[in-house]
Amino acid sequence: MTKTLAVSVWRGKEEGDFVTYEVPRRDNQTVLDVITHIQRNVDHTLSYRFACRVGMCGSCAMTVNGKAMWTCRTHVSQVADNGKLELAPLSNLPVVKDLVTDMRDFFDKWARGMGQFKGSRTRNDDFEKVQPDSKARKAADAGIECIGCGVCYGSCDVVSWRPDYLGPAALNRAWTLVNDQRDVQSAQRLSVVAGDAGCHSCHTQGTCTERCPKQLAPTASIAGLKRLLMTSSAGGK
Description:
Keywords: 2Fe-2S, 3Fe-4S, 4Fe-4S, Iron, Iron-sulfur, Metal-binding, Oxidoreductase. GO terms for molecular function: 2 iron, 2 sulfur cluster binding; 3 iron, 4 sulfur cluster binding; 4 iron, 4 sulfur cluster binding; electron transfer activity; metal ion binding; succinate dehydrogenase (quinone) activity. The protein is an alpha+beta fold and 237 residues long. It has 2 domains: 97 residues, Beta-grasp domain (Ubiquitin-like (UB roll)), CATH 3.10.20; 133 residues, Orthogonal Bundle (Fumarate Reductase Iron-sulfur Protein, Chain B, domain 2). Helix content is 35%, strand content 14%. Strand 3 and strand 4 form a beta hairpin. The radius of gyration is 20 Å and the shape is elongated. The model has no long low-confidence stretch (mean pLDDT 94).
């Protein structure tokens, strides 16, 4: 193991360049530890984003050696190539500065895909009972742990080709909601995701599933939406 790391970090906005820093290498060091060392000890002007440091918020996601991932749960030993790291902002999103991206497009598409739950009951009604072993509940459970980190979005080639594409996170969220028996907007939501920017634009490359830090499968959720739409168009339920 090398004693130091050569870390190339993107500096600037959309226009910029990589700057290389030398960072001490330590046991059990995460990529976020490396970035924090640079910002606190080498160059205080470096901008990056993080919050929880334990894989709960997803805000530290960026591109490490060409692949989108969380940095707080990624150890240097997993990604350092001969003691070298290249750190860049997430792809498919505007760069605010250095490693910070503007996440508005990502969350706007979440909203466009009707990613908000809407039930029919009020606080004065009894809770609706959902059978945990029902087919729909299991389908929803398979994708419900998404925390909106944007790793799948930054990894999706279709988003690169089609900026209007809703993206895997928004479609995964739509799938969980159409399988939630308490939600009252399923028909309208299916109409939205059936559009040109919806699930049918997915090329099923599977990069979103491969890189999801939560081990979710947006590819499967999108395929589920396609099947549901096909069944609906054929007059089924």
